Amino acid sequence: METEIRNESYYKELVNFSLLAGLILMASRAETNRVEDTVSRILKTSGLPITEAFVLPTGITVTLSDNKDMTICVNKRTAPGEVNIRKIDEVNQISRDFCSGFKDLEESYEKLKEIGEEKGYPLWLKLIGTSLASGGFSVVFGGSVLDGIAALVIGFILGICLHYIKKLIQKDFLTIALCSFIVAFLGVLVSWLAIKVNISISPQYIISGCLMPLVPGVAITNAVRDVLSGDFLSACARAVEAIMVAAAIAIGVSGGLYISEVIGLSDAELGFVMEISRGSLVADIIYGAISIVIAIIGFIYVMEIPLKYIIQCCATGCIAWVCFLLFDYAKIDMVWATFIATLLAELVSYIFARIYKAPVITFLIAGIIPLVPGIYIYRAAYYFVTKSPLSSSALTDTIKLAAVIALGILVMGTILQVISRGIRKLSKKE
Q1: Which of 394, 402, 407, 411 could be cross-linked to 380 through a Cys-Cys bond (beta carbons 3.0 to 4.6 Å apart)?
Q2: Domain ranges in the chain?
Q3: Three-state DSSP class for 235?
Q4: CB within 8 A of 2, min separation 6: which ones?
Q5: Residues 317 and 342 sit within 8 Å (Cβ to Cβ)
Q6: Among residues 147, 243, 229, which one has the least CA distance to residue 417?
Q7: 55: which strand partners?
Q8: Which H/E stretch holds residue 51?
Q9: Integer distance in angstroms from the first to the last C-alpha of the chain?
């Protein structure tokens, strides 16, 4: 009798451990398949015949049963949180160590509790990250060093606004819309002030760069990976999230540009240029690679990617961007250039994930961020405000590029899955 009581107590603790792991992963914006896989692996260490993990974007249900007289079933609602790749990586490592027998349940559970209670990077570090990401991408999109410096400053202000507006209204859609409004207005204002002192800067590069910390890169990535895993309900939820964020950005930018025009900051005087400028190929590769590294270092702090992967993340981002740039110079359609660069980003991310035993999203987010159509969201908003006939085509281009990024992740992810299954089958036969 004492053994049965002890075992049941252990199973309850195992269920709580697996549930906590799932909750931390969901709060950190991990893909649904990763959450289910982690929880299921932990439960299977019990040796019991029934181990189930059912995960939705809003809740987790965990079941453990011996198929006779003991069944433990727990349902817990998930709380929304900020993107935190560092916690996803740490939970992944703890579950690996526990399932491999390197750590016992009590030690693993205590460590998991510590991770759940950990605070993210301090605010000042995230502000620097937002600033670096904004400045780096403004240059990547074709801006000058002065454009990058202006974006650095506005990006810092953006980080402050994101933190305090979200605390105040606690609504992601309104927060992103308001922050996009502030970015657009400040971008035009700074450009207007620069003209008054005979300094030439381009607001479209400044605004586009500052919008990048707001674009839904993680939501797009998770939506596609959920589709790949057959979690269509979760995929739809992630896709809706990505669409809502993009809509909030477009609404905010449109409002900022409109108010700027109303108060007399004329777009004609500011000289908006809507094309990505290009110089020589070698200069653009070097210039772009440096800017990409700066931007990705910023994103590492914004999304709390473990610092030990900083080189790998920068390498993934640079490889994807250089690939895109080469195809762009070869006059290949931008849709195809983005698709091929996304394929390469997924492949490189998968290789790094296998080598370092880390989640693919750790590296993939750095690979696709340079390809996410932030400048095209801005372009569509600008054409809409100026009542240009090009507004519909600009919106179509934005949707096509977002869709082709998703398709690239899906195609390469499927190919890698097929290859991985083939290798496992061959290994079993041998």
Answers
A1: 394
A2: 2-117, 123-421
A3: helix
A4: none
A5: no
A6: 229
A7: 60
A8: strand 50-56
A9: 45
